[in-house]
Write a structure and sequence with these properties.
Blueprint: H1 2-13, H2 19-23, H3 33-39, E1 47-48, E2 52-60, E3 63-69, H4 80-94, E4 104-111, E5 114-116, E6 120-121
Parallel strand pairs: 3-4
Antiparallel strand pairs: 1-2, 2-3, 4-5, 4-6
Helix pairs in contact: 1-4
């Protein structure tokens, strides 16, 4: 259940990279985590299948931090890395060039008010093997 829900979340949260980030010469400034966070604020508060809600999008240094929450016990048997891999993997499916800007990402999760910080991710996870 988690993977389709987080993939849907990633589709909504994935920012459209500024044109400068897609074809930027070395001398042109790359967008920062703060730029992405600002552009993605419209996705905060959206609730997805399974009751997963995007609670916050912020920047910490040059790390984009997404915070998600869900119904009581939704994280049972999931590690912060599991949640991060699912969301970042979906995000990379829609915006694979995101990490080429030098921005990193972290997915934090809430369950019953308890916050768990995910790992800082600097590249898209390997694609799952074809089945």
């Amino acid at each position: 259940m988690l993977k389709p829900v987080l993939f849907a979340l990633a589709l909504v949260a994935a920012p459209a990279l500024p044109a400068a980030a897609q074809t930027a010469p070395a001398a042109q400034a790359q967008p920062t985590a703060a730029d992405f966070a600002k552009n993605m604020q419209g996705a905060v508060g959206q609730t997805f299948e399974g009751g997963i809600t995007l609670k916050a999008i912020a920047a910490e240094g040059n790390t984009l931090v997404l915070t998600v929450d869900g119904p009581a016990g939704w994280r049972t048997q999931l590690t912060p890395a599991d949640i991060s891999t699912a969301l970042v993997g979906g995000f990379c499916g829609t915006a694979p060039q995101f990490f080429t800007t030098g921005v990193s990402m972290r997915v934090d999760s809430l369950d019953g008010g308890k916050l768990l910080k995910g790992p800082v991710v600097t590249q898209c996870p390997p694609a799952a093997p074809a089945q």
